[in-house]
Automatic annotation (TrEMBL):
Positions bound to S-adenosyl-L-methionine: Q345, Y374, E395, D443
Name used for this protein in its record: Uncharacterized RNA methyltransferase yfjO
Organism: Thermobacillus xylanilyticus
Residues annotated as the enzyme's active site: C470
The gene coding this protein: txxe 1562-yfjO
Ranges in a coiled coil: none
Length: 512
């Protein structure tokens, strides 16, 4: 059997990887070059144990699905796949780990990358472990359970390092990267679950997540990253809904679509939101009655109406059915009241570390004016407010601003104000009016900061710019803009907010 090697042996001496070579291939898979490799490809794939092995040597852009290549995995990609190279083209291999050598079957050939699945692991990583969760390979919620936690932390640090090298041009000692902050117990940290309601294959009601790219529901009753109070309540609600005869899906007469549960870890109290295609649906009141009787830890039950076909969980209308309108929870010294749709960080233990880092970076003395752009429900602003003269939060979602104002009152903060609008519009307007913040904190969505916001920062030149980010690539790109505008990176601190997944959060301090 011949396989394609990423370099060296079998790299195809005398087989130019010249552009245009691919063009010689005819539709339907034939190739006018008549090379042995291609003939082998066109022949029935019966020479491998799984009957799908094409064995020859090829330039990266001549590979086809089913071809086997041998790849050394160099790092973890942003979606948790192993990334290696085949003749200088990136190969994404789900499930493969850094340091492993895998024989992989090509599944996709794109202009800039290949995708492949593991056929055999030739050299195993010492970080490879058996995933804890029985539905790990189907659920899609976690991407790194097959790697031990030390390996995950190292891989995430590398993701940040790689992003800064690629997008900000900072390599090695040029990047003041601190060691990632992980969790002592990297399980059961999620304070909220959004579970789709559907049918089990053999009948009965299921609550779970859809398999990525499919409509098959994976029952995740014993989710290993979910707070146990949420998992236990979800299973009881599933049974009670079944007993109450609640229809599931998006039926015209009303049916349960999604069950949203959020826990306040310090009290164990739970907030339940039943997302349904109509406010009233068969069995709803029986279900609410049963939950009140059997699950006293649920202190708030609402229905949210979502008739839409988009993947958004919530619709516009929410009505309280029973109990308190909000769930009260704490972060550090602060209290927060969360309405059913309010955004709140999912890992409270790590959130405290993240916000403490933002406070460290802001280095407040009590005299500063601070902007918390992309402020959500105002949590960072409220974390900083006791140490600043004034904090202004900016957020596009009206309800989030209402929550932020309410939480400011709840915590007796009179120096934090919140504004509905786009950060890239409001901040320049304030600056025109003479406003000069000493510190700007941003915590944008994955797409990063708007260019207009970065231009304003470059003009206003706050002494400290604190960038909280959930996406190393956009973080590094935005930092490049600020480096070119005269800022310098003091430190970058990755924080593992989502163990077992490939996500990595970080706080970066830029100064001038
Ligand atoms: C990553 S969340 C920040 C959450 C918050 N800092 C926290 O820790 O809970 C990003 C927030 O930015 C808001 N947002 C998105 N685009 C925005 C814009 N152009 N201007 C202001 N806020 C925006 C989103 O609605 C979202 O609440």
């Amino acid at each position: 059997m011949r396989e394609h090697r990423e370099s060296g042996a079998g790299s195809g001496k005398g087989r130019p990887d010249a552009p245009g070579r691919k063009d010689k291939r005819m539709p339907g898979g034939a190739d006018r070059t008549g090379s042995k490799r291609v003939r082998a490809a066109a022949a029935p794939r019966a020479n491998g144990r799984d009957g799908a092995v094409r064995i020859a040597d090829a330039a990266a852009d001549e590979l086809r699905p089913g071809d086997r290549i041998v790849v050394t995995i160099k790092r973890i990609g942003i979606n948790g796949e192993g990334v290696g190279y085949y003749k200088r083209k990136a190969v994404f291999v789900p499930g493969a780990l850094p340091g492993e050598v895998v024989k992989a079957a090509v599944t996709g050939v794109e202009p800039n990358r290949l995708t492949a699945r593991i056929a055999e692991i030739e050299k195993r990583s010492s970080h490879r472990v058996k995933p804890v969760c029985p539905v790990y390979d189907r659920c899609g919620g976690c991407q790194l359970q097959h790697m031990d936690y030390a390996g995950q932390l190292a891989a995430k640090e590398e993701l940040v390092r790689e992003a800064f090298a690629r997008y900000a041009g900072l390599e090695g000692a040029e990047l003041p990267l601190r060691p990632i902050i992980g969790m002592d117990e990297p399980w059961r940290y999620r304070n909220k679950a959004q579970l789709q309601a559907g049918h089990k294959p053999g009948g009965g009601l299921a609550l779970g997540l859809y398999e990525p790219g499919s409509r098959r529901l994976v029952d995740i009753a014993g989710c290993a990253v979910q707070h146990p109070a949420v998992s236990a309540a979800a299973e009881r609600i599933r049974r009670l809904a079944e007993r109450a005869g609640v229809p599931v899906g998006a039926g015209p007469d009303g049916a349960l679509r999604t069950v949203v549960l959020r826990v306040a870890p310090e009290s164990g109290e739970l907030q339940l939101t039943l997302v349904a295609s109509a406010e009233q649906f068969p069995g709803r009141d029986r279900l609410v009655e049963a939950i009140r009787r059997e699950l006293p830890q649920i202190i708030s039950i609402s229905v949210n109406v979502n008739r839409g076909s988009s993947p958004l969980v919530f619709g516009e209308r929410t009505r309280l059915l029973w109990g308190k309108p909000d769930l009260e929870t704490r972060l550090g010294d602060l209290r927060f009241k969360l309405s059913p749709r309010a955004f709140f960080q999912l890992n409270p233990e790590q959130t405290v570390k993240l916000y403490d880092l933002a406070r460290e970076a802001a280095a407040l003395t009590g005299r500063e004016t601070v902007v918390d752009a992309y402020c959500g429900t105002g949590t960072i602003a409220l974390w900083l407010a006791p140490h600043a003269r004034e904090v202004r939060g900016i957020e596009t979602i009206r309800e989030a601003v209402d929550d932020a104002e309410r939480n400011a009152r709840l915590n007796g903060r009179t120096n934090a104000r919140f504004y509905v609008g786009r950060a890239e519009e409001l901040l320049p307007r304030w600056v025109k009016q003479g406003f000069r913040p000493d510190v700007i904190v941003v915590d944008p969505p994955r797409t990063g900061c708007d260019a207009a916001l970065l231009r304003t920062v470059a003009d206003v030149k706050p002494a400290r710019f604190v960038y909280v980010s959930c996406n190393p690539a956009t973080l590094a790109k935005d930092c490049r803009v600020l480096l070119d505008a005269g800022y310098r990176i003091e430190w970058v601190q990755p924080v593992d907010m989502f163990p077992q997944t490939s996500h990595v959060e970080s706080v970066t301090l830029l100064v001038r």
